[in-house]
Amino acid sequence: MNSSLELLAAMLPESVDAALIISNENRRYFTEFVSSLGYLLLTREEAYLLVDFRYAEAAAKYAKGCTVIPYKLLPEEIGRLTVKHNIRSVMLEGSAFTLNDAESMDKLLKSNGAESIHSGELDKLITKLRVIKTSSEVDKIIKAQRITEQALTETLRLIKEGVTEQEIALELEYKMRRLGAEDVSFELIVIAGEKTSMPHGTPGNNKIKPGDFITFDIGAVYKGYHSDMTRTYALGYVSDKQKRVYDTVYQAQKLGLEAVRGGAVCGEVDKIVRDYIYHAGFEGCFGHSTGHGVGLEIHEQPRLSPNEKTVLQSGMVVTVEPGIYLPGEFGVRIEDMAVVTADGCMSLAVLPKELVIL
Ligand SMILES: [Mn+2]
Question: Ligand 1 centre and the CA of 10: distance in Å?
Answer without folding.
Answer: 33
